[in-house]
# Entry
Amino acid sequence: MLNTSPDYRVIVIGGGHAGTEAALAAARTGAPTLLVTQNLDTIGQMSCNPAIGGIGKGHLVREIDALGGAMGRAADAAGIQFRVLNRRKGPAVRATRAQTDRALYRHAIRAAVEAEPNLTCFQDGVADLQVEGGRATGVVTTLGLTLSAPTVVLATGTFLGGRIHVGEARREGGRAGDAPANALAARLRELGLAADRLKTGTPPRIDGRTIDFARLTPQPGDEPRPVFSFMGDPSDHPRQVPCHIATTTPATHELIRANLERSPMFSGAIESNGPRYCPSIEDKVVRFADRDAHQIFVEPEGLDTHEVYPNGISTSLPFDVQQALVQTLPGFEAARITRPGYAIEYDFLDPRGLRPSLESRELPGLYLAGQINGTTGYEEAGAQGLLAGLNAARAAADLPAWTPGRDEAYLGVMVDDLITRGTREPYRMFTSRAEYRLLLREDNADLRLTPVGRELGLVDDHRFAAFQVRQNTIEAEQNRLATTTIRAGEVGDELAREVLGQPLDRNQHLADLLRRPETEYYALHRLPGAGEPTARADVAEQVTVQARYAGYIERQLAENARQERHAHRSIPDELDFRAVPGLSTEVAEKLGRHRPSTLGQAGRIDGVTPAALSLLLVHLHRWG
Ligand code: FAD
# Structure
């Protein structure tokens, strides 16, 4: 067959959130990269809610951004309502979330893709993988073109064997309006990659002109308005609009109960698991039978459309029930559905078959990212895409993979969770998944990752220069705070009470005063001798967080170092766990099934005890 490839080093399949970050990351490192996707017009398309971020997910967006990725900047260019979730809680769990304009988001991602010099796009479906000598060496498209490269990234989302359900009606589809990737799904199973099924769902969309918004509670965005990108500014944002809050009623729940057997999830037509933390409305009504109201966030789909997204009533009930259900909501009595809600079942590949680089163990040269690995969410997909694209490019250049640890990035936590434990339901990120969450904050994602991103070739000069200015300003401000003394004799009791909550009884450095939870950075500068505060709010925030949490962070770092000593000890692929003296057959089998790459990963497998780890460690020492 005709080989149309010039010297591509990486081919990425799929122009969704994983695929675009993968292609951009590979290309940023200098690797000539080809993105093959079913439809160029759906590059960056959001399949479900047009919203980016949230708890755990916002952290991933900031990490993608810190590594030079596109998602944060696109969210800034498209965000129409911004909020900081958990604002009153500690900085570790604070998270940015934006409702976005669906079309603006797509345009921003497409523009980023088109602006990347080493990246070529091609519209076609991929029907087959080219495999030579047990390695993936390219793709074959539905047109019959063979395109070759030393590495391939597979990021096909919900499209593999996708099957859409609306009540009793069923049809094949990758998502509403798009064809599924059936030939490729069959081929992956044929290649022996362990596949299983998962399910997700989406609510009906509604014509906003048929909703009585006066009866809903408006929810404006936050001021001051946060930004996602470390390079961003609120002036990047388009016009801002509010979201609204509505609720279900006992009539809604009664209607759902009466029609449960018509929902494919309850009739048995769908057997695969859906996202536990994003359940359908029929699930919620059954699981929380004692509640007579559930909140619904009524979110705009964009600035130039009347369509709204009723977040909280994802459903696969038949269309007639959906229409009646929507009209039981106060303010929605005359509401008209523009697009029915639906559930979709699709193939995913068991992520335990992946290395920490996201390369398939079974088929070297093939990297997997996004929903295909059992995750849900744009942010989870984007972060994996960046890692897979980067590592595919590095492998093609004979460079070692970059594999961030659980203490370095949420990206490291997610990949480690997936490849070590696998998943039985769509995996989404939460801050509670990170044992080092005091270290892995949204606010310091650049301080954690931009220097390594620069070394890896992901961060351009412009971003790195801005990062260095920020880093130097933070350090200079920390030095100033550590060396500026506030003299007790110069501060009147009244002012001290206002600023510090109590009189100042001894001379202290500004840095020590900032450590007290009741003090505020800018207020401190009312004290005589405090000097001029920094004009940069991000620097003020960073020095405050670092001063206040230094003690906790030190403790976490010490604990971290203790565990580190052994956690990174690698386990050779060829190690036969049954040959480890003293290890129980059950644990040996479990380790054999999961094939952890490091002792740290082995320790996180259910049932692998510290004693078993010690035996393994001794054996590894002997092994060499
Ligand atoms: P996708 O965004 O699906 O992108 C896949 C891309 O690959 C597409 O561009 C497609 O055209 C292309 N492609 C597929 N097959 C081929 C092929 N053979 N050849 C070439 N190109 C191909 N996430 C949440 O966080 N919460 C939710 O509640 C939620 N609900 C959802 C409901 C529905 C109905 C759907 C469909 C998705 C939902 N999601 C939800 C998931 C979210 O959309 C995905 O997590 C995210 O889009 C995954 O990104 P991805 O890049 O892996 O795949």
About this structure: The mean pLDDT is 93.
